[in-house]
Amino acid sequence: MTSTGVALDSAPATQPAPYRWRWAALFVILAAEVMDLLDAVVTNIAGPSMRADLGGGASTVQWLGAAYTLAMAVGLITGGRLGDIHGRRLMFLVGAAGFTAGSLLCAVAQSPGMLIGARVVQGLFGAVMLPQGLGMIKEMFPPKEMQAAFGLFGPVMGLSAVGGPILAGWLVEADYAGTGWRMIFLINLPLGAAALLGALRLLPRGRSPQAPGLDIPGMLLASLAAFLLVFPLVQGRERDWPLWAFAMLAASAAVFVLFGRYESRRSRAGGDPLVVPTLFRKRGFSGGMAVGLVFFSAMNGFMLVFSLYTQMGLGYSTLRAGLAMVPWSGGMVVGFGLAQAVQRFGRRVLHGGALVMALGVLGVWFTLDRAGAGVTPWQLTPALVVTGIGMGLLMAPFFDIVLAGVEQHETGSAAGTMTAMQQLGSAFGVALLGTVFFGLLGGGVASAADDAAPALRARLAAAQVTGAAQDALVRGLHDCGRDRATAKDPEAAPASCARLERDARAAAASPQARAAVARALQDTGRSAFQGGFGTAMKTVLWVVDGMLLLTVLVAFLLPRKAREDGEGAGR
Question: 459: domain range?
Answer without folding.
Answer: 444-530
